[in-house]
Specification:
ATP-binding, Rossmann fold, alpha/beta, Cyt_trans-like, UDP-N-acetylmuramoyl-L-alanine:D-glutamate ligase, 19 strands, five-stranded parallel sheet, ATP binding, 36% helix, 24% strand
Length: 472
């Protein structure tokens, strides 16, 4: 995850931008006029949809994003441009076409279920003048971006002639080009770096019904070879994805809860491009995209994902490395925003020489909630507390060993003599200290909802270990 934070790629998204309009409510009766639900609308929201959701995902991940598309010269088009600009995307390349209707999909959601959707849009191919304007803009942006993403929703922007020209330009400038395709004829995507159809789309395009791993392999290899791609990736919803490069690899995923697959393909396209341009290999990028999609299908509506949410998801599956569990205070604050609803347990200490007493203490502490955060004294703060001969082990070593324990969710070093500032930032539900604090004031007790004292294992301490070593 650190490699993804180290670089901010610049990406160009080309495709069908649209508005996703949601009417949220509840249903408690059937209409007397017809056998349909009556939805009591309680709130309304408008999000970026289509290629706009790809843009939104890239911005959420931290990329610089430019957008090329065509919208109508109407109120919806004006609203869409305003939303893109407000989010920080470069929308100067978007063309307004007279007489065209900007795509808007309106969904009625009742009790977390989509009841009905109605669309207002133009699906005709964009005009020749609009296509030429987009090509000019594309030629202007290409030298300054790391990759191009084509998000095709079949609404007329990515015409065959225009798409082929963009791929030709990408090759000329040696820029990777990733495609989320649409339709039953993928010939216009020939020569792209990779495509990301879902299972149903890949079945239609390859004319191979995907029903098992053998047919999946045939369909993926057919698309890769016939379209002269470097990679073909077939997304399999909650079952993960299949990668076709020099070899075939099926990558499963574990989505904790699947509420809505809307926009999952957008997230895969965005996260793949983001990870690849940050220097990850295809296998690593696909794994990242897989996790990002798993986060998104746990949300309702076209959704975005952040690096912190992916980080939190990977930790929830216990697939995180020890190194990735070591966080700064600022990183921990961001992560906690992605883990709302969990009961947070906090404890702190020097943990200089890890022993059985520490391990049992931390296991008990973890049992008090969903997540255990360990505040770890820096080397300098230990010297101030225990003298110049301590610590025996450096902060880096102590943090890594602690993070390797299953009971420890995160380790956060701090420089001060007490963890008060860290506790104020984390706002834990439960504060845990040793039983020797009984009758004493526990730092941060006024902040946590609850203080729990845990008995140490008799005779087990770092001081005793040091004494034993010194006498031998």
């Amino acid at each position: 995850m650190d490699r993804l934070r180290a670089y901010q790629p610049s990406l160009l998204v080309i495709g069908d931008v649209m508005l996703d309009h949601y009417l949220w409510g509840k249903c408690e009766r059937i209409s007397p006029e017809a056998p349909v639900q009556v939805v009591d609308v309680q709130k309304e929201s408008v999000l970026l949809g289509g290629a706009g959701n790809v843009v939104n995902n890239l911005l959420s991940l931290g990329a610089n994003v430019s957008v090329l598309s065509v919208v109508g010269d109407d109120d919806n088009g004006h609203e869409l441009l305003g939303m893109l600009e407000a989010l920080g995307a470069d929308a100067k390349g978007i063309v307004r076409e007279e007489g065209r209707k900007t795509s808007k999909k309106s969904r009625v959601i009742a009790s977390h279920q989509q009841v009905v959707r109605f669309d207002s849009e133009s699906k005709d191919e964009i005009s020749e003048a609009s296509s030429l304007a987009l090509l000019r803009a594309c030629e202007m942006y290409l030298p300054h971006v790391d990759a191009i993403l084509l998000s095709d929703y079949g609404k007329g922007v990515l015409t065959t002639a225009f798409t082929c020209k963009v791929i030709e330009l990408a090759k000329k400038h040696h820029k990777p080009l990733l495609v989320d395709p649409k339709g039953d004829d993928y010939s216009k995507y020939r020569g792209a770096t990779l495509i990301t159809p879902n299972k149903k789309e890949a079945s239609i395009a390859s004319k191979i019904t995907i029903k098992d791993d053998e047919s999946l392999r045939k369909a993926g290899n057919f698309l890769k070879e016939s379209l002269d791609l470097e990679y073909a990736i077939i997304t399999l919803s909650e079952d993960g994805m299949a990668i076709f490069g020099d070899t075939f690899h099926k990558m499963p995923t574990v989505a904790r809860e699947v509420y809505d697959v809307t926009g999952a393909g957008d997230t895969v396209l965005a996260s793949l491009a983001y990870a690849l341009t940050c220097g990850l290999c295809m296998q690593e990028a696909a794994s990242f995209a897989n996790a990002a999609a798993a986060v998104v299908v746990g949300k309702i509506g076209s959704a975005t994902v952040s690096l912190d949410e992916v980080d939190a998801y990977e930790h929830s599956l216990r697939t995180a490395t020890s190194e990735s569990k070591i966080k700064t205070k600022e990183q921990m604050i961001r992560l906690l925003k992605a883990k709302k609803g969990q009961k947070i347990v906090f404890t702190n200490g020097c943990f200089d020489i890890l022993h059985v007493g520490h391990v049992k203490y931390l296991e008990v502490a973890k049992s008090f909630g969903d997540m255990l955060i360990v505040g770890l004294n820096s080397d300098a703060s230990i010297q101030r507390l225990k003298g110049q001969s301590r610590p025996i082990n450096t902060l880096e070593d102590r943090a890594y060993i602690l993070a390797g324990l299953e009971s420890v969710s995160y380790v956060v070093p701090f420089e001060e003599d007490t963890p008060l500032n860290l506790i104020e930032a984390i706002m834990p539900d439960v504060l845990v200290k040793g039983a020797d604090y009984e009758g004493k004031e526990v730092v941060g007790s006024q902040i946590a909802k609850e203080v729990r004292l845990v008995r140490f294992v008799e005779g087990k301490s770092t001081t005793n270990i040091i004494k034993k070593v010194q006498t031998q």
